[in-house]
């Protein structure tokens, strides 16, 4: 018999809030974390804005030892360690002792690319014949699994400790993988999440593709406009989100606070066929993913009252709404409320799914639906599909019973997860 899985801890390092209290306030208030970056202007980027978590050196010292701090130059790693450690503490869990790991706890923490600045620093030293100056942490800061390795050592987890990577679906996929491990009895709890680096060496490729907005450099907070008729491309972002998943019996036994229940989900791919490509989704695959997630969660489509979409402020937004409508078989009036966190954070790439899952769980726990900032002019093709009132511009204070969260990524890959109020 499958185990029930609940969420007992949250952590976040987002452009508009580091730590759960600040982040929750920001999404309720519609506060943006998108800012102008002088460095991008110097490098002649078309898009000179982005979302980057604001973390002081003093704050970083709270999470890393003096040895780890020596030569530390990986923004994604920093964000992931902060979010993951905070989630573990939020769940009321202790770090394992020195002699014995916690065999029942594991980690699946993803990333798209890690340690870009460290790579750049290392390449210069090697080219100059100064290899010995690389330091002892250069490898762990630049290997993709460095984030799960760091967190595994800090927390002392003895179950599966690994890193996944599936472009923008990474965080949502990690959550589903952790859910399945607990559901099948292979672990009692899993720390899941994802992180991503920031800066010109991560964002440059997207600027070269001309899919970032170039006309909002003087007004960064207005730039990210999911579902808007004036959307001009996605704003790049970064950060990390983390969640502690736990077997329900274990959570009840230790009296843990429960944020929400995970009912199930689905991952699939469109195979870059039937209209799908490296950068575009196969609409049939997206609809299949949504329908399978609903079936796996053992609910009816009509029970979903809120959707937290992928919705990046690109031409794909209309297609995504159409896919949801077809998969849910809903009318214009009874379509669920839908929102996109990217209006406040930008598109945090590999970190987006986990940060947005944290936001979704907060909505369920605290009975609100955050508003869609910068969507005062919904796209007319979207309004042909659903009523404008289903796209709230201001935060709605009301219960959320069942929420569907989706992430779609480069390579034509999809992930949908279903959360329920516990």
UniProtKB/TrEMBL annotation:
This is 3-oxoacyl-[acyl-carrier-protein] synthase 1. It is an enzyme of class 2 (transferase). Its main location: cytoplasm. It holds the Pfam family ketoacyl-synt. It comes from Autumnicola tepida. Its EC number is 2.3.1.41. CDD domains: KAS_I_II. Homodimer. It is found in: Cytoplasm. The keyword Acyltransferase applies. It catalyses: (3Z)-decenoyl-[ACP] + malonyl-[ACP] + H(+) = 3-oxo-(5Z)-dodecenoyl-[ACP] + holo-[ACP] + CO2; a fatty acyl-[ACP] + malonyl-[ACP] + H(+) = a 3-oxoacyl-[ACP] + holo-[ACP] + CO2. One of its GO terms (molecular function) is acyltransferase activity.
């Amino acid at each position: 018999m499958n185990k029930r899985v609940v969420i007992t801890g949250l952590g976040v390092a987002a452009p508009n809030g580091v730590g759960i209290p600040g982040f929750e306030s920001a999404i309720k208030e519609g506060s943006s974390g998108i800012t102008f970056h002088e460095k991008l202007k110097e490098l002649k980027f078309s898009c000179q804005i982005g979302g980057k978590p604001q973390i002081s050196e003093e704050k970083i010292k709270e999470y890393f030892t003096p040895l780890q701090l020596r030569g530390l130059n990986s923004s994604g790693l920093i964000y992931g360690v902060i979010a993951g450690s905070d989630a573990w503490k939020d769940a009321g869990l202790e770090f394992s002792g020195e002699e014995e790991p916690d065999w029942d706890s594991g980690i699946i923490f993803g990333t798209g690319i890690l340690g870009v600045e460290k790579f750049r620093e290392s390449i210069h030293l090697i080219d100059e014949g100064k290899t010995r100056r690389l330091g002892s942490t250069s490898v762990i800061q630049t290997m993709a699994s460095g984030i799960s390795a760091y967190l595994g050592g800090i927390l002392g987890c003895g179950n599966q400790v690994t890193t996944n990577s599936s472009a923008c679906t990474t965080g949502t996929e990690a959550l589903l993988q952790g859910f399945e491990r607990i559901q099948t009895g292979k672990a009692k709890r899993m720390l899941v999440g994802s992180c991503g680096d920031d800066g010109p060496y991560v964002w440059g490729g997207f600027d070269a593709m001309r899919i970032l907005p170039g006309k909002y450099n003087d007004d960064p907070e207005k730039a990210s406009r999911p579902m808007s008729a004036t959307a001009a491309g996605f704003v790049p972002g970064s950060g990390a989100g983390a969640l502690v998943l736990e077997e329900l019996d274990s959570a009840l036994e230790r009296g843990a606070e429960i944020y929400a229940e995970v009912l199930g989900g689905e991952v699939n791919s469109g195979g870059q066929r039937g209209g799908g490509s490296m950068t575009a989704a196969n609409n049939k695959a997206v609809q299949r993913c949504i329908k399978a997630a609903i079936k796996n969660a053992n609910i009816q489509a009509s029970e979903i009252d809120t959707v937290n979409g992928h919705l990046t402020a690109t031409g794909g937004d209309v297609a995504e709404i159409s896919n949801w409508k077809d998969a849910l078989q809903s009318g214009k009036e009874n379509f669920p409320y839908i929102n996109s966190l990217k209006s406040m954070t930008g598109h945090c790439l590999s970190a987006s799914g986990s940060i947005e899952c944290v936001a979704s769980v907060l909505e369920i726990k605290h009975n609100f639906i955050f508003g869609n900032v910068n969507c005062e002019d919904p796209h007319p093709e979207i309004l042909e599909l659903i009523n404008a009132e289903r796209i709230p511009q201001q935060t709605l204070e009301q219960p959320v019973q069942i929420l569907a969260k989706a992430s779609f990524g480069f390579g034509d890959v999809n992930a949908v997860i279903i959360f329920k109020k516990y």
